[in-house]
Amino acid sequence: MQIPIINRSHHPLPTHATVGASGMDLRAFTDEPIVLDPWHRVLIDTGLSIALPKGYEAQVRSRSGLALKFGVAVLNSPGTIDADYRGEIKILLINLSFQPFMVQDGARIAQLIIAKYEPISWQVVSVLDETARGEAGHGSTGQI
């Protein structure tokens, strides 16, 4: 599938790192390093804008290495980019560690995944079909 993209940054376009990868790394686009203090959040530019076709969304997710090694994650993960949005993709990062984290220009800060979805319409009913699980919710399947 081809998706129109504008790249205002000087960084390469997001690509799949391996044949089986679903995510593509997004890079920070900043004039100067950004210090992300512990327990603070910051919105970081990527310089990218896309035009998704109807029936698709882009999901912005944390990079597992940043989360594990530095405690840095995408705050509203997964963030959703709707098919009708044409603005710049920006990444809302949070530092969940106790050490400041430096975001350099070009740093890989998030992943982008393109996903198909189906528009729905609600069908109002008075009862739902029965399942083995029923209304059992949080923790109902055990701890381990």
Automatic annotation (TrEMBL):
One matching Pfam family: dUTPase
InterPro entries, per the entry: dUTPase, dUTPase-like, dUTPase-like_sf, dUTPase_trimeric
EC number: 3.6.1.23
Keywords: Hydrolase, Magnesium, Metal-binding, Nucleotide metabolism
Top EC class, one word: hydrolase
Involved pathway(s): Pyrimidine metabolism; dUMP biosynthesis; dUMP from dCTP (dUTP route): step 2/2
Catalysed reactions, semicolon-separated: dUTP + H2O = dUMP + diphosphate + H(+)
Named cofactor requirement(s): Mg(2+)
Coiled-coil residue spans: none
Binding positions for substrate per the UniProt entry: 63-65, 76, 80-82
Domain dUTPase-like as annotated: residue spans: 12-142
Stated family: Belongs to the dUTPase family.
Described purpose of this protein according to its UniProt entry: This enzyme is involved in nucleotide metabolism: it produces dUMP, the immediate precursor of thymidine nucleotides and it decreases the intracellular concentration of dUTP so that uracil cannot be incorporated into DNA.
NCBIfam families recorded: dut (TIGR00576), PRK00601.1 (NF001862)
Identification of the protein by name: Deoxyuridine 5'-triphosphate nucleotidohydrolase
The gene coding this protein: dut
